[in-house]
Write a structure and sequence with these properties.
- This protein is α/β, with parallel strands linked by helices.
- About 30% of the residues lie in helices and about 20% in strands.
- The strands form seven sheets. Strands 15-14-16-13-12-35-17-26-34 form a nine-stranded mixed beta sheet, with helices on both faces. The chain has an eight-stranded parallel beta sheet with strand order 24-23-22-21-20-19-18-25.
- β21, α19 and β22 form a beta-alpha-beta unit.
- The protein is globular, with a radius of gyration of 28 Å.
- The two termini are about 20 Å apart.
Length: about 750
């Protein structure tokens, strides 16, 4: 969609003040993320402010990509002689106002979908049911936030039969803003769950907030009666038994309900062909990203091939590719061949390096080395994506990066605005993948990374990471690596400092950044307080180094009322004052980890270090309620067997059946990270939401579990960690902590990553 506004009209719509050189061409497209800018005429960059960044700091990068019009809350010092600036009080509010004005000129219906869960699924399935029969457009992926809804509106065409927009509100007052912008004509409410009401005073306030979006709609589809809905005085359509329900191709309760909602909505617009229901796509792998063969990164986005969704996928590929080649693999059915020219044109617009169209059963002979590969198209492309996986293992570990981003922002929101954040990515980012996690966190604007060893930092630099990296266990053998790859070592004793100085002097380096580690009671690495004065004197005499930070580590941050912790913090503060009195330049101070952020916010100083908290874990009850789980560890049943009374199961015959029973053999064992201590009923998995205890001993590569009364067969999904069994509970059953579980899941377990905006 092109805005096609004159510069004067554009300024007027934003209520902005124009500065700099007036732009002579038409304003055509809004951009806000410099990584996703595809140079073209008429771009305007909105300098948005987020938890980790100021949009104005990215103006230079946008300018280098050809942008000449900028919406800002203040004009930068470097105005650029040919740039146009529109000054507004709030850049996000200005973008929302632009979207509101655009929406006011649209004459076709807008269907809003809101709720706690299932919004994206219902939206995509409804689109699947209606596409081809009506001219339907919908918001891309999960563009449902204050920013996302505005962007979704601005991408809508001027003429259509229907637009489907996904909407979310996470804080009080947000839905009123979105309702004013969107003004939906019809609505779907998927559900309202108390577990999502943490940012509200109570569940009633949360439900009223969600339902306020639908005031004035012509009809609202909802699966259940709610008091907040009844107060709206709008026509409601409840989900009723339908003859078409038998065609739904899913077995789980959530998918069936979401399918029914989509079917009910579709029937309000047109008649539905049975084949459309039978072919509802499995969306669980939507925009799944995983490691591929030859060091490639695979984006599996095979669920749809319409133009707007494809543009969104290409934009995502561009944002994560860095210096890697971008390859697009397209599978077209006979009916989709008419899209080939449009697909090639889009790929050309986004500067894709290679585009390949594949036919069913065609062998892939391409080199994918050092490439980011987007797989799109017909259903058979799902098999292509599977063949590209680096590891083939039924046991999978999935990371929800959207949940991780949410957790990051929850911790950030509990800090002062000026406090920086260091993300710990040591030990392969707690098993999640060193470079993958660092690249994602760098996109969020994290200020620092922390690694254990210089080799980890080297790997990050080689993957294109630019963010400063603190090496916490900077061994003497790795000092040259630190210098070569611009890594910042933690200095914790004099011998180690001396080794670094030798390297720096030999290379004629000065003002090389270092971090001073203090031991205030942990009794691990670090200078003792009585060594600080001597250290300061050495540093003062060595121009080769510059202190970037002084830090320490709390021994029992999980205890909110620890007198030991209070002494550590007080001692740390005194030592920092000692450094301040001698150093002629500022430095960062940090002592808090994830638990410390929750329990000791008054000691946040200049920076905090977040690690396990990213994965949704905290011993603080209030903080944990605000966090979301990040990982799902699953497998599937290899075989089901009948066991008769008196028969044994597993090594050592430690389990003897007392009755007829059915067991499932699952391809996961202690070599994968499923601890041997979980043998003989100590541990369990969940199948079809039912707890199935381990029978016999855990083997290296397999476990056997009791199916009880379940009537299931091989290839059924198995949950190890997920909605039924949390990471915390699994760790308790193993008599260990979540850290050990995360870092001990074997590399042979396939990792995948999903992200929705």
């Amino acid at each position: 969609m092109k805005l096609e506004l004159t510069y004067t009209d554009f300024c007027s719509q934003l209520n902005g003040k124009a500065e700099g050189v007036p732009y002579s061409d038409l304003i055509q497209e809004v951009v806000y993320d410099t990584r996703k800018i595809n140079p073209s005429a008429g771009l305007v960059f909105f300098a948005l402010t987020g938890p980790f960044r100021q949009g104005e700091s990215y103006i230079s990068a946008a300018y280098e990509k050809g942008v000449r019009v900028f919406v800002v809350h203040q004009v930068p010092v470097n105005k650029w002689s040919d740039a146009s600036f529109i000054v507004v009080k709030d850049t996000l509010a200005a973008l929302q106002l632009l979207a509101k004005n655009y929406r006011n000129n649209l004459q076709y219906p807008i269907l809003a979908i809101a709720g706690s869960l299932g919004k994206t699924t219902v939206k995509e399935w409804l689109y699947h049911l209606l596409a081809g029969k009506l001219e339907v457009f919908r918001s891309p992926k999960s563009y449902n936030s204050q920013l996302g809804v505005a962007l979704s509106l601005l991408q809508l065409p001027k003429k259509a039969d229907l637009a489907i927009i996904e909407v979310a509100a996470t804080k009080p007052g947000e839905m009123n803003i979105l309702a004013d912008i969107l003004r939906p004509t019809h609505g779907i409410l998927t559900n309202v769950l108390s577990s999502h009401a943490n940012e509200f005073s109570d569940f009633i306030q949360y439900s009223q907030e969600i339902c306020s979006l639908f005031q004035g709609v012509q009809w609202l589809i909802t699966p259940e009666e709610m008091e907040s809905v009844a107060q709206l005085s709008v026509k409601t359509i409840s989900i009723q038994p339908n003859a078409l329900d038998a065609l739904i191709p899913f077995q789980d309760e959530n998918s069936i309900l979401q399918s029914k909602i989509a079917i009910a909505a579709a029937q309000e617009w047109t008649t539905i062909e049975e084949e459309r229901i039978k072919s509802l796509p499995q969306l669980a792998m939507r925009l799944e990203t995983f490691e591929g063969n030859d060091g490639s990164l695979i984006i599996n986005d095979t669920y749809t091939l319409d133009k707007e969704a494809f543009k969104s996928s290409l934009s995502y590929q561009l944002s994560i590719a860095g210096s890697k080649r971008r390859i697009v693999l397209i599978g077209l059915s006979a009916e989709q061949l008419v899209k080939k020219d449009d697909i090639q044109e889009l790929c050309q617009q986004f500067g894709v390096d290679e585009v390949h169209f594949l036919q069913q059963e065609e062998e892939l002979t391409l080199s994918l080395k050092n490439a980011v590969v987007l797989v799109k198209g017909a259903r058979f492309m799902q098999r292509v994506a599977n063949r590209l996986k680096w590891k083939q293992h039924k046991t999978q570990l999935s990371y929800n990066l959207s949940a991780l981003k949410h957790n990051l922002n929850q911790f950030k929101n509990s800090l002062n605005a000026e406090t920086s954040m260091l993300a710990m990515v040591k030990a392969q980012s707690y098993g999640a993948g060193l470079t993958t996690m660092a690249q994602f966190l760098e996109k969020q604007g994290i200020h620092y990374f922390g690694v254990a060893y210089s080799d980890e930092g080297k790997e990050l630099r080689k993957s294109g990471i630019k963010t400063p990296i603190l090496v916490m266990n900077a061994e003497e053998e790795g000092m040259e690596t630190c210098v070569e790859y611009d890594l910042e070592p933690a200095i914790y004793d004099f011998n180690q400092l001396d080794e670094l100085l030798k390297v720096l002097i030999a290379q004629e380096k000065t003002a090389f950044p270092i971090h001073i580690k203090l031991d205030t009671g942990m009794k691990r690495l670090g200078f003792y307080p009585d060594q600080v004065q001597q250290l300061i004197e050495v540093l003062a005499a060595q121009p080769e180094v510059l202190v970037k930070s002084v830090y320490s580590h709390l021994a029992e941050a999980e205890d909110q009322e620890s007198t030991f912790t209070a002494k550590q913090i007080a001692q740390f503060e005194e030592i920092c004052k000692q450094f301040e009195s001698y150093l002629s330049y500022p430095f960062l101070r940090h002592i808090l980890n994830s638990e410390g952020i929750a329990h000791y916010p008054n000691a946040q100083f200049d920076m905090v270090r977040i690690g396990i908290g990213l994965f949704g874990l905290s011993s603080d009850r209030l903080m944990e309620q605000r966090l979301k789980p990040v990982i799902d560890w699953t497998s599937s049943i290899s075989q089901v067997k009948m066991i008769h009374p008196g028969e044994s199961v597993g090594y050592g015959r430690t389990f003897i059946a007392q009755k007829e029973m059915r067991i499932a053999i699952i391809p996961i064992g202690y070599a994968d990270g499923f601890k041997r201590s979980l043998s003989n009923g100590v541990g369990a998995v969940f199948i079809d939401n039912q707890r199935c205890p381990v029978v016999g001993r855990v083997c290296m590569d397999m476990i056997m579990v009791d199916l009880g009364e379940l009537k299931i067969h091989s290839n059924t999904k198995v949950e190890i960690i997920g909605s039924n069994q949390s990471l915390t509970q699994f760790a308790k059953d193993c008599h260990t902590i979540p850290y050990e579980i995360l870092t001990s899941i074997s590399p042979r377990v396939h990792r995948s990553y999903s992200e929705e905006e």
